[in-house]
Amino acid sequence: MAVLLNGPLTERSVHLCIDMQRLFSTEGPWPTPWMERVLPTVTRIAERFPERTVFTRFITPQRPEDMPGTWRIYYERWRETTREHLDPRMLELMPSLSRLVPPATIIDKPVYSAFAGHKLADYLRERQADALIVTGSETDVCVLATVLGAVDHGYRVVIVADGLCSSSDEGHDSLLSLYSKRFSQQIETVDSETILSSWR
Of the four listed, 5, 21, 79, 168, which is most buried by Cβ atoms within 10 Å? Predict the structure, then answer.
């Protein structure tokens, strides 16, 4: 079991779980084939302190024309994921996580980074958060964008390696290596047992 380099987690640490939605499950249009494999790990962490957990949801636009620039082109390619075509249940959290809300919090976002806009930044400031424990989907897309946003905001970031999933094994492995090597002063990468044993 790894040891946290920057000391133990505190009651001000927040579990930030990115986009663990049916949209990205095997039943959704953007499947991450091993979301179901990491879901028990993510659930265990969220259950430890649900009141200290934030779930983000990636909310697609009603139609491509509602988005600017290349996002419009993106959703013209993925028109079936826009809300005018998508089963709204696909936007829901996975059931084992949705039952934790409340006391867990949901923050919706229209783009990759959970730090786009001000909702998450305001929430963390109000909580006086001192660290973010990061799980979710996908390692190399929304998790990447959010983690870099967290670093830019000066947060201590602790990534739970066995609590992340992606549709690309290569992308997942590359990003775990990037997180631990290029950002080692600001990002720690550990396993879930380390989190569960050190977060009080």
Answer: 21
> What's the pLDDT band for 76 if we cut at 50, 70, 90?
very high
- Judge contact between 84 and 75, C-beta under 8 A: no
**pLDDT, tens digit, 9 for 90 and up, residues 5-28:** 788 899 999 999 999 999 999 999
Phi-psi region of 157 (alpha: psi -120 to 50; beta: other; left: phi over 0): beta
Angle between helices 142-152 and 169-182 (to 10 degrees): 10
200 Cβ neighbours under 8 A, 6+ residues apart: 8, 9, 10, 11
Distance separating alpha carbons of residues 112 and 145, to the nearest angstrom: 6
Distance CA 117, CA 101 (A): 22
